[in-house]
Structures are given as C-alpha cells and as structure tokens.
Design goal:
Chain B: This is Sb:cb470. Chain B: It comes from Hippocampus comes (Tiger tail seahorse). Chain B: One of its GO terms (biological process) is receptor recycling. The complex is a heterodimer of chains A (about 220) and B (about 270). By secondary structure, chain A is of the alpha/beta class. Chain A has six helices and six strands; from the N terminus they run βαββαβααβαβα. Chain A has helices at about 35-45, 85-90, 105-110, 110-120, 145-155, 170-190, and strands at about 20-30, 55-65, 70-75, 95-100, 130-135, 160. With about 270 residues, chain B is an alpha+beta fold. Chain B has a domain at about 110-150 and about 170-270. Chain B starts with 15 loop residues before the first helix and ends with a strand. Classes of the chains: A alpha/beta (about 220), B alpha+beta (about 270). The interface between A and B is medium-sized, with 24 and 28 residues.
C-alpha cells in the first residue's frame, strides 16, 4: 500500500491509502456532456442546466479491482478552443482518456479525429482511449449512427460505448473498461520492458513511493 | 459643424416649400413574384436592437449591490468581539449578492459569472470568472478571472484560503499539483494561457490604509510583471496603486475593456465601493 504517514504515524490529511492512482481525462467538443458524465459517475447526480467548464477541473473516485484500491483522478476539460493551451498541459501523464462526442451533434463527431491527434501529440504512447457517444437517450435527435461511432473507434484503435449521463447508461461501464485497459497495459509493460512504467506519470501525486513503481500489477 | 444643415421651419404650414416636399406616393409597378415591400412605418415598430455595451450599467448596478453588502460586514465591529467573518464568508457574500442581482436584472445571458469549484480555485487561482458572451454561440468573448485578496491573508497566497484540516482529498491533490506557483501566479498563468481577452482582476477587500473599501487592479498584461520580478506577491499588486492617481469606476473599467483594441495591453486600478 502506498499509505502516506508522517513520523508520528498519523495519516497525512485526507485518506491517501491506495494501491494505484490513475490519471484520466475526459475530452471532446464543448457541450457534449463531459461534466455531466463525470458528475454522474462520481456523484450519481445529473442536472440539465448547462454550465460551460472554465479551463479544467477534476474529481477523485476510488474503485476496487481484485482487492486492489485504485484511486482515479478524473480531469474534466473545457471543450472550447480558447482553453486549449491549459487543457493540453494536463494531458501529460494521463494514463487514460474518454474521448466524447454527442450523438445529436455531427460536428462533435467530426472533431473526434482532431481530438485523437491531440492525444497523440500531448500524451504518452501507452495512454488508453475509450470513445464515448454521449446523449444516447436522445434517440429522436440522433444524427450519428451507432455503426458510424463503432467504425470510427475501430479505425482509431479505441474501445467504444454509447452512453447517457442523463439516464445513467454505460457510464460506470466506460470507466471500468478504461481501468481494465490501463491495468492490462501495465501488466503487459511490466512483463516486457519495466522501464516503460518506471517514473510513471502519477509519481508526483504521492509523497511516498509512486504506486506504479511497485513490482508487478495484479489489478 | 452643423452650419450647412437646413433648419426646419418654425411655421411649417405657412411654408409653401414644406407642402411641396410631400410628393404623392406612386406605387412601383407590381410584380407578383416579388415580395411586398415593407411599409416605411414598419421600421417604427422594429424592436430595439441590444447594443453590445448595454450590459455595462446593469453590471455596475450588480457591483454596487455586492460591494455595499460586503462593506457592511467589512466595517462591522462587534462590541463583544465575537463575530469575525472569515475571508471565505466575505467572498461568498459578495458573490451571492452579485449573482442574485444579476439574475434579477436578466444580465446572465450577455454577461455571466461562473463560480469556481474548490479544486478550480486552487488550480486556476480564481474565485470566479466573469464573461462577456458571444451573442450567437454564448461562448466567452472576453473574460475576467477574479481573485479576492483579504487583509487577513498571509503573504504569498500559499494558504489558498483553506485550512489543512478542512481540506478535502481532492483539494489537497490540487494543491500538490500547483505547489510550484503561488495563487497570484496561478491566476496570471491561467489568463495568459487563454490570451489577451482574458483579464486577471485582483480584488482587495480592504487595503492597509483603507480597510473598509474594495479596490481592484486589473490587467491582461501581468505576465510582463513576472518577467521583471522574481514573483508576483501582494506587495507587487499593491504597488500598482502607488503609481496611479486615477481610480476607475466598475463601469469605466468595463467600458475600457470592451472598447480596447484586440491584443492591446490594458492595466487599470478600480474602486468598487
């Protein structure tokens, strides 16, 4: 465990006991529902009022996998172009991305390729990506078919889900799949070249030994 | 100026030329395919077009309400010395009063206010962000990131206004993420990353020599100060007032912002109360 304790043995501030910490980012065009998606996952809440995200924000959620405690630091990014400098600065060290579009908005789907390029440009090679077509509760306003979404995901090498933050469809599943992909990748990397994970991106988030430097990954 | 303009006659009905200027209306040859021409009187019924700067007096009203309310608590002296409003409480009083007033005045469609989450306050250094919105897209056209400075703040802005024991886990994480810069620098960095149409406004709830008034220093060019100094601190920000005799009003500040040429640097000192 990467518990952080001071010399007196007291836990340092809030709960910091965890086996792994994964930094995840949600990206995609403005108003596709990134913030709602995160609120649904982290707080099981939804509001239809649209408040455009300023810059960047994040939430923390702990999940368990094979008796391991995984802390997810989930970054919610602003989709507007004016924040691009600040949001891409946070791509560094991200282990997973949820690339989101809105099934009722063709333009947001058309921008997926650009967002994918942004990931390649600003993130590391081992980052895992899940493509999410959000707002699938709005079937009557759909302009992007499920097949189009799936085909694009295949072409880009991403996993794919259609989701609804409003109706809580595939929200948890999307995150769980992303965590699985990251764990698989970590296992592969550790079986192969250990240098791949040495000095891994989350190192700065903990005051003690970075969780990813532990030998082996059983998550 | 104006000498060449003809003056209307004082007695138009006795003026022959006045009547001859009215010519009988000859309708143009009708063309069934062409849409009917609108009557000239229809222009009188045209709804007034909102001008881009119409929101400024409303913004000023909201600021007046928020500043006055905050000032009441700023100058409050408890005879029994039991009540000490915390810096956070003062910020919330200002913001809540501003928000309720702006909702009442229907200002939020043109000029909105986004309060930051506790994590964003640490990461971006701002307590809230005002934005002049693009009419068609509702995207921000101009932004003002606001950080409140309290007289009780420790120097350096490292304390982030949150006591360690009350910090949530995510707030502590945010502090670790941003530990390389103080709160002032984080906000300047944020504004610089957005561009010259994003201003940083440091709002002083009382200054050393005037504890009961609210002042501000606004700029889209604070990064120039970073280049000249080792770091941005309260002393540097207070120094801006020493070099300036003129203090803008909140509406004067907004007027300067909306009329500034794109890309030009702008630095202003403002008195809000």
């Amino acid at each position: 465990m990467a518990a952080t304790q001071d010399a007196k043995g007291k836990a340092e501030g809030a709960d910091q006991n965890f086996d792994y910490m994964f930094k995840l980012l949600i990206i995609g065009n403005s108003s596709v529902g990134k913030t709602s998606f995160l609120f649904r996952y982290a707080d099981d809440a939804f509001t239809s009022a649209f408040v455009s995200t300023v810059g960047i924000d994040f939430k923390v959620k702990t999940v368990y996998k094979n008796d391991k405690r995984i802390k997810l630091q989930i970054w919610d990014t602003a989709g507007q172009e004016r924040y691009r400098t600040i949001t891409t600065a946070y791509y560094r060290g991200a282990m997973g991305f949820i690339l989101m579009y809105d099934i009722t908005n063709e333009e947001s789907f058309g921008a997926v390729q650009d967002w994918s390029t942004q990931i390649k440009t600003y993130s590391w090679d081992n980052a895992q990506v899940v493509l999410a077509g959000n707002k699938c509760d709005m079937e009557e306003e759909r302009v992007v078919s499920v097949d189009s979404g799936r085909l694009l995901a295949e072409q880009l090498g991403f996993e794919f889900f259609e989701t609804s933050a409003k109706d809580n469809i595939n929200v948890k599943q999307t995150f769980e799949r992303l965590v699985d992909l990251i764990c698989d990748k970590m296992s592969d990397s550790l079986d192969g070249d250990p240098a791949v994970t040495a000095g891994a991106p989350t190192a700065k988030l903990t005051d003690s030994a970075p969780p990813l430097q532990q030998p082996g990954c059983n998550c | 100026m104006g000498e060449n303009m003809s003056k209307p006659s004082a007695k138009p009905f006795q003026d022959v030329t006045f009547f001859t200027s009215f010519k009988p209306y000859n309708p143009p040859a009708t063309n069934d395919a062409a849409p009917p021409r609108p009557s000239i009187f229809s222009t009188l019924r045209r709804p007034p077009v909102a001008k881009p700067n119409d929101f400024i007096p409303l913004f000023s009203d909201c600021i007046t309400a928020a500043s006055s309310r905050t000032q009441e608590y700023l100058i409050f002296k408890d005879p029994e010395d039991k009540f000490h409003p915390s810096p956070d409480a003062l910020t919330q009083i200002f913001l809540m009063t501003y928000i309720s007033q702006s909702v009442n005045l229907n200002l939020t469609d043109i000029f909105n206010c986004t309060a930051m989450t506790p994590e964003q306050r640490i990461l971006l250094g701002a307590d809230w962000v005002w934005a002049v919105l693009e009419k068609s897209t509702k995207n921000p056209r101009i932004q003002i990131a606001v950080q409140v400075l309290h007289l009780s703040d420790k120097e350096g802005g490292e304390e982030d206004g949150v006591l360690p024991e009350t910090c949530s886990e995510s707030v502590q994480m945010a502090q670790r993420e941003s530990s390389d810069r103080n709160m002032y620098e984080r906000m300047v960095d944020f504004c610089t990353s957005v561009g010259k149409d994003c201003y940083a406004l440091f709002l002083f709830f009382g200054r050393k020599n005037d504890k009961s008034n609210i002042y501000g220093v606004l700029s889209n060019n604070f990064e120039a100060a970073i280049g000249k100094c080792d770091k941005i601190d309260r002393a540097l920000l207070e120094n801006f007032f020493k070099g300036s005799r003129y203090l803008h009003t909140p509406s004067g500040m907004m007027q300067s912002i909306v009329t500034r040429n794109e890309g030009d640097p702008l630095t202003l000192m403002i008195k809000f109360s």
